[in-house]
Specification:
Number of domains: 2
Strand content: 25-35%
Radius of gyration: 27 Å
Order of helices and strands: HHHHHHHEEEEHHHEEEEH
Shape: elongated
Helix content: 40-55%
């Protein structure tokens, strides 16, 4: 290697001590969000659990109202339900719709009733809350392939409550029987998923690996004081795609900035959402790296012994 080549190499790379801790930090930042399947593990560090936190953020009067009207539906008390329905959803087919929903409800009394999801949207003169309830019923035995299998039975009910000028009305009511609990339905698992989920996961891992590569490469490159700016910019993503891991549905949010470019989150018991943004900072660094290194090498403020 010539002296000129050695000088160029020394001006663009720093000692190999950089990649070790930077790789660990980047891996935790970019990849671990995709592996977080235990929803309670992080909350336990702060002395909380999902049930207590969900109860804290759920309007208790709305939850009680939701349970009351689902119970009225279970008892086929359609008139009382119709009296509380918001005028915007009442029509000539309301009674038929309530009758069909009633026919899907498991028989018997539930062994447990709990809220599994809740959200509240406030506006100037009103608010809308969405309460999702899970009813668990006694397991039932089914003869399957000559063997008796015991299955659980659940009912998932969603009630949308609108509060306007102190008056609460039912703005939405949906029920669906299920052979799995709400948490099992929304578990993060690779089994029995469609092409949509697998493509989203591969894209997320690819973007995370690409961002990690650019981050480590930037850390090993002599850029002077600009290095720390670029290390931050590399973690910036734009133009976000979101994949619902339960349903496989994709959504697009074009006007958004996300740090880091890949994240994964869920509500208390709801579906996992994998968010993937275009790693604009990482792409920009790789395109301009040669120019940046040449500018840093020619800068009179860049000392030969500097590790930055």
């Amino acid at each position: 290697m010539t002296a000129a080549a050695q000088e160029t190499n020394a001006s663009t790379e720093v000692p190999s001590l950089w990649p070790g801790w930077l790789c660990c930090c980047c891996f935790a930042l970019l990849v671990l969000p995709l592996t977080g399947c235990d929803r309670d593990s992080g909350l336990k560090l702060f002395g909380y659990d999902r049930a207590s936190l969900l109860k804290r953020y759920t309007p208790q009067d709305d939850e009680a109202l939701a349970i009351r009207y689902v119970n009225l539906l279970r008892q086929s008390q359609f008139e009382q339900i119709e009296d509380r329905l918001d005028p915007s959803i009442k029509n000539s087919e309301t009674r038929d719709t309530l009758t069909r929903m009633y026919s899907t409800i498991p028989t018997g009394e539930p062994t447990s009733i709990r809220a599994v999801d809740s959200s509240v949207v406030h506006s100037r003169n009103s608010s809308i809350s969405s309460i999702t309830l899970e009813y668990e019923f006694e397991p039932h035995a089914v003869l399957l392939n000559g063997r008796t299998e015991v299955f659980g039975t659940w009912l998932i009910a969603q009630v949308v409550i609108q509060t306007k000028e102190g008056v609460k009305t039912i703005a939405g009511l949906h029920v669906a029987p299920s052979s799995e609990s709400f948490e099992e339905i929304n578990a993060f698992t690779l089994a029995n998923k469609g092409i949509s989920q697998y493509v989203g996961l591969c894209l997320a891992v690819g973007v995370a690996a690409f961002t990690l590569y650019a981050f480590v490469l930037c850390a090993r490159t002599r850029l002077g004081k600009k290095k720390w700016i670029w290390l931050i910019l590399i973690l910036v993503g734009v133009f976000r795609l979101t994949v619902n891991w339960t349903t496989g549905e994709w959504s697009l949010t074009p006007l958004t900035v996300q740090v880091p470019p890949v994240t994964c989150f869920s509500t208390f018991y709801g579906p996992w959402m994998v968010q993937i943004a275009v790693p604009l900072g990482a792409i920009a660094f790789l395109l301009w790296r040669e120019k940046l290194t040449s500018e840093a090498a020619s800068s009179p403020l860049q000392s030969p012994a500097s590790g930055q």
